Amino acid sequence: MGQAMLTGWNARNLAPSAVVAPSLDAGHHAVSRHDLFRDTPSAVAALLEAGTRPAAIVLAVKPQKADAVLPALAPLLGDGAAGPVVLSIMAGRTLAALAAQLPAGSRLVRSMPNTPAAIGRGVTVAVAGAGVDTVQRNLCDRLLRAAGAVEWVENEALLDAVTAVSGSGPAYVFLLAELLERAGTAQGLPPALARTLARATVSGAGALLDALPDDADALRRAVTSPGGTTEQALSVLMAPENWPSAVSDAVRAATERSRALAG
Ligand SMILES: NC(=O)C1=CN([C@@H]2O[C@H](COP(=O)(O)OP(=O)(O)OC[C@H]3O[C@@H](n4cnc5c(N)ncnc54)[C@H](O)[C@@H]3O)[C@@H](O)[C@H]2O)C=CC1
Ligand SMILES: O=C(O)[C@@H]1CCC=N1
């Protein structure tokens, strides 16, 4: 996901210097390839040796790796209140859990992006922790907005359901493409044609949803001729025990998993 975000920044020509908040010294980098170092202590040492103090540190490791990575950031954070803003994209990991492993007063933002970030079509929800100032919040907003839309919320508890809907959501859509391809092949389509149709249908429908102001249910109804083929398919999919309960159960399970990853 960190790579997808960096791809998004690069695709939009947001070089590190371009995302530095105007009020910060020119030598301060909001993001650099150091962020991609796999070895956090080495990356921290390299930044300190270069005299570079980042304006933001993006935490994009697995939540399960956080315990190993967070303490290694301390030399960069110094006195937390005066240090860089730490922008986490880790699922589940709460602001309180992050704060407990970072110098006192560290300025923290928790966010949940999704993988369409790689083409600038992601959507992220973010929540700012105590003490994050306007400059830091704007910096995080610019970093996240380079990857797509950004929504800020005040209530951190919403992040678990956000993770279940939009963070994990692309996987549900890709699964639909997989299942459509498989079902088309089962109905006799050559596999290559089934693949082409499934991909084009999922991406085309998504693009239509994006391009038109209509609600999803209106677009669905527009496809559905009375007595036609779509109606037959939807009578299966929309049966309460099928997609309505499956999607609801899936989002509930993901929400609960996010809560369990709190740390
Ligand atoms: N994959 C997704 O769609 C989304 C993932 N996230 C969050 O992003 C985070 C990363 O998830 P993925 O990108 O899926 O995992 P990933 O395994 O693709 O990426 C994790 C990265 O962390 C690096 N890494 C591992 N140990 C490290 C260390 N000690 N120091 C520095 N880097 C280290 C790995 O080399 C790898 O590049 C997770 O916290 C996840 O919850 C958030 C939104 C969406
Ligand atoms: O599966 C996960 O835990 C991460 C968070 C949202 C998407 N991928």
TrEMBL record:
It is found in: Cytoplasm. Keywords: Amino-acid biosynthesis, Cytoplasm, NADP, Oxidoreductase, Proline biosynthesis. Pfam families: P5CR_dimer. Residues 156-261 form the Pyrroline-5-carboxylate reductase dimerisation domain. It comes from Rhizosaccharibacter radicis. Belongs to the pyrroline-5-carboxylate reductase family. One of its GO terms (molecular function) is pyrroline-5-carboxylate reductase activity. InterPro entries: 6-PGluconate_DH-like_C_sf, NAD(P)-bd_dom_sf, P5CR_dimer, Pyrroline-COOH_reductase. It comes from the Bacteria. This is Pyrroline-5-carboxylate reductase. HAMAP family: P5C_reductase (MF_01925). Signal peptide: none annotated. It is an enzyme of class 1 (oxidoreductase). The lineage of its organism: Bacteria, Pseudomonadati, Pseudomonadota, Alphaproteobacteria, Acetobacterales. NCBIfam families: proC. Pathway: Amino-acid biosynthesis; L-proline biosynthesis; L-proline from L-glutamate 5-semialdehyde: step 1/1. Its EC number is 1.5.1.2. The keyword Amino-acid biosynthesis applies. The keyword Amino-acid biosynthesis applies.
